[in-house]
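Exercise: predict the fold of this chain.
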Amino acid sequence: MHPEVQMDKDGKCPKCGMSLTASKKEQLKQKVTKSYTCPMHANVKSDTAGTCPKCGMNMHASKKEQLKSTLMKGYTCPMHPGEKSSKAGKCSKCGMALTKKN
């Protein structure tokens, strides 16, 4: 209702009281953000690798991330191995030329 109202967390619109929703940009970012899960607690999720807060086990890339990694063959940055592409180009983080993966 009020696109000029923006907040960095969930809440209600101060003008009309409706629940706030993520912007289109944030929704897209959430779709492409890497996700990790605990092998013992599937409901524990994170956007960064680390340990599970419940059991301390290392978080693993989600099934979706594992599939993406398998499908994204081709080129990667020598400095940022997480930067992958199916075609030659430059790293979006440092600008180095992507190298062919073996």
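Check your answer against the key: The helical segments are 24-32, 63-71.
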